[in-house]
Structure of EGF-like domain-containing protein:
Amino acid sequence: MAQEVKSDLLKKQSVKAGLIGCFRGLVVNGEILDIYSYMSVHLSEIIKDCKPSCVPNPCKNGAECRELWSAFKCVCNNTWAHIGEFCEININEKALTFINRKSFLMRNYLSATAQPSDIVAIFDEEREMLKGILNKDILINLRTYDTNSMVLYANDHYNNFVHLYINDGREIVFLYNYGDEIVNLTVVDVSVSTLKSIQVAIVREEQHTHMYVNGKSATIERGTLLLDEYSNKPWQNPEK
């Protein structure tokens, strides 16, 4: 037994990694030592005082502040919708309300017209962003009582497309084309049409596409493959 205790003590004594954190006060035999006097001018890794970087919390939108001792890191509460060093940007702050079935947003990035050069530059930037809808990540937040409605549809002049819609009040369906094949991703969530905030994230990878709906998800082994020639009826599985 004594040998085991000695072995444990030796293990503990062999720990040589230094402390990361605050070291406050050093008293030896009742004498308070001036710990500042022990600091070497060459030790840039030691700073005076112990000022927590997370008090008060510099992070926004309910983000967690992680203490890094002389620095901090904000861990966003909603990593999809909150971005920035302090999680200060909330993409859900700008919103629209559609009040009838005929209300919609429409943008045609192919319909460039003669405009001043500064307007053309803005249009070109927006056009490239809109083209990315076909093969890049998409994030949408919505609230509705609708049980069947189209949320997003986009296509180009080759018939490449993405289509996001609500089905039967309990399904979020994402359709897109992988070459001449129509791909279906469906996530079932019974709260879709209950006015609850629904966050839909489409994540595109080289070999997979994922759809996240709040805490649920669906994945398919298809990345993105866009058509580069026009065809009036390109789909091998139009029943999708």
Remarks:
- The longest strand covers residues 171-178.
- The first helix runs from residue 2 to 13.
- The two ends are 72 Å apart (CA to CA).
- The helical segments are 2-13, 117-131.
